[in-house]
Amino acid sequence: MEQLPKATVQQFIKSITNGDMKCSNEFVTQVMSMAKEYIQQVSDQANTICLENGKKTISGEFFYKAIQKLRLEGQIQFLKEIEEEIKEEVNVKNQNKARFQDEDHLRQLEEQQKELYEKAKLENNKHIVDDEDNSKPRKTLNLQFDQEEEDPQ
Predict the structure, then answer these.
(1) Fewer CB near the last or first residue (10 Å), C or N of the chain?
(2) Which residues belong to any copy of the Transcription factor CBF/NF-Y/archaeal histone domain (predicted)?
């Protein structure tokens, strides 16, 4: 079985300890070994329960049954809380993704972008007077971008 990525485990440990604690390589290796063993035990047990139920897909239901069968019931409440947090994160990501698929929202963003572009263009095209000689304007950039026009279909 493959090892968990050491850098990922180190980063996880660092986030848990808020970066305040240094960890030896031995500690990181032990955490990696224990996490691997935990994943292997739970997956194996969940797979067995799944097959006993005549199913081919391991679901969350089988995960929790495996946790119970391994006599780790004390973890279930904590794991369910984590599951809810993950579901919320996924829901927020899906909502944000949906916002960028909403044509009205995209039109609003495009209008805002055009307004900002025009505002920046006006600011950039103003003549800035040199501090030393008030009558001598500095060179200014004249930004012009070709904007693609939508092809009416």
Answers:
(1) C
(2) 3-61
